[in-house]
Specification:
Rossmann fold, 16 helices, 17 strands, 18% strand, globular
């Protein structure tokens, strides 16, 4: 039975749609509401955003009848009754989304590490399945959240449609068929500029109708590094070097470049995560190989893009929030994740100084003026005492740090009051790292 059929049956049998709560009504969140409005059998019925009237506006952008939208910031029981009566709740508080009792699944879409950590933690404790669009949170505490969800009997997952989820779908396809996968990766869709900040990208952000902080986080590499970290931790594939290789490539080049050095490529291992500049974005890829003669003959007969005994499985798109409903449905109907960190993390998104940082300065935010992210092996990050990027927001610099240098725990004073700090401490304790 297809998801479409399952949705139709659920709504017919239960006289209601699947009810979804959403935290974060920015570009991604509003797009998710809009897509789900076109689907039968599921609806986003509660939206929270800290910005004044933003949740209400997001519903309207998604073509929800304004007469159905009710503002309710403090009474989850009343909100539940309003939802029963077909209303949509607009609020400011993430706590409301957690506390409304008749939501089936909740979604996080803020992109802010601390906000995501607190929301996912609280939702799991409230026995709600969580679909997390906030990879910035996941790469810091995804293992801890996954273990919590398992203990609570709910689902915690990243989304289909973002590059990590799209790669995982290709990975599952190829690994299920018995292929050896030597590399997984994605394209980067804008030039890499580690010094990008909201001012330098302001004009481009305005043209693209984007938040300058978000665009800066794309251009400085933070988003790509976090996405690769999520891919790595969900599959066990490590970056070979800090920051990964990131060569320029066309689609036809993928199997030639992302294969072992002895066969003409750039890899020194056979289980790597990486990315490519050029015309690979917005696509994702896995590089496969096999030693079975008949399978080799069939792959060549089928004209799968190859270099010698390596073939590229390439998906030329990812649809981000527009595909996220698939993960909601997998979590609700099958109790399955799209992508989650079940095993000890193998990669870390570490913190790099975007400019010279002086003792006493505060680190601002992802896509800001002070730091950016880079991928590193988790073991290396741990041995060298490198700070995960998502822990540094609001931290105080204790020692001068040069531009381009990795930030160490000894060089910053972290905000120990943050939920993400405590969850990371618990994760490290569980893994025996403290």
């Amino acid at each position: 039975m297809s998801f479409k059929q399952m949705l139709e049956k659920f709504e017919k049998d239960n006289k209601r749609p699947i009810r979804i709560g959403l935290l974060g009504a920015g570009q991604m969140g509003t797009g998710l509401i809009s897509q789900i409005e076109k689907m039968q059998g599921m609806k986003i019925v509660a939206v929270a955003d800290v910005r004044k009237d933003r949740a209400y506006e997001a519903y309207q952008e998604a073509s929800v009848d304004k007469n159905l939208i009710v503002k309710n910031d403090s009474n989850p029981e009343k909100a539940a009754q309003e939802i029963e009566n077909g209303k949509r709740i607009a609020c400011h508080s993430s706590d409301m989304i957690v506390q409304i009792p008749n939501l089936d699944v909740v979604v996080e879409s803020t992109g802010i590490p601390e906000v995501g950590a607190r929301f996912c933690h609280d939702a799991i404790l409230a026995r709600k399945s969580v679909v997390n669009m906030n990879v910035e949170t996941d790469v810091v505490i995804g293992y801890q959240l996954t273990r919590m969800a398992e203990a609570a009997g709910v689902v915690y997952t990243l989304i289909a449609g973002d590059e990590p989820g799209s790669v995982k779908e290709l990975y599952d396809f190829a690994s299920t068929l018995g292929f050896e996968i030597v590399c997984i990766g994605k394209g980067k869709n804008n030039p890499l500029n580690p010094q990008a900040n909201p001012d330098s990208v302001a004009k481009s952000a305005k043209v693209q109708n984007m938040n300058p902080k978000m665009l800066a986080a794309f251009e400085d590499g933070t988003k790509t590094m976090a996405e690769m970290t999520a891919m790595a931790n969900g599959t066990g594939y490590e970056p070979e070097i800090r920051g990964a290789h990131g060569p320029n490539a066309e689609v036809a080049d993928l199997p030639r470049i992302f294969c072992p050095k002895e066969d003409g490529g750039i890899l020194t291992t056979r289980r790597a995560v990486d990315y490519a500049m050029g015309k690979i974005a917005p696509g994702v890829f896995v590089i496969i190989t096999t030693d079975q003669p008949k399978i080799i003959a069939d792959l060549n007969y089928l004209h799968v893009n190859n270099h010698g005994k390596y073939w590229a499985l390439y998906r030329p798109y990812h649809m981000a929030n527009l595909e996220a409903p698939i993960s909601i449905l997998r979590a609700f109907f099958y109790k399955e994740e799209t992508l989650a960190t079940h095993n000890p993390p193998v990669a870390e998104t570490i913190t790099m100084a975007k400019r010279d940082l002086k003792a006493g300065e505060k680190i601002d935010y992802l896509g800001g003026y002070t730091v950016y992210g880079s991928i590193e092996k988790a073991e290396t990050a741990r041995k060298e005492g490198l700070v995960p990027l998502g822990l540094t927001v609001g931290a105080t610099v204790c020692k001068d740090i040069k531009q381009g240098q990795a930030v160490h725990y000894s060089e910053v004073e972290l905000d120990e009051n943050q939920t993400i700090y405590h969850l990371r401490w618990l994760q490290d304790q569980k893994l025996g790292y403290n």
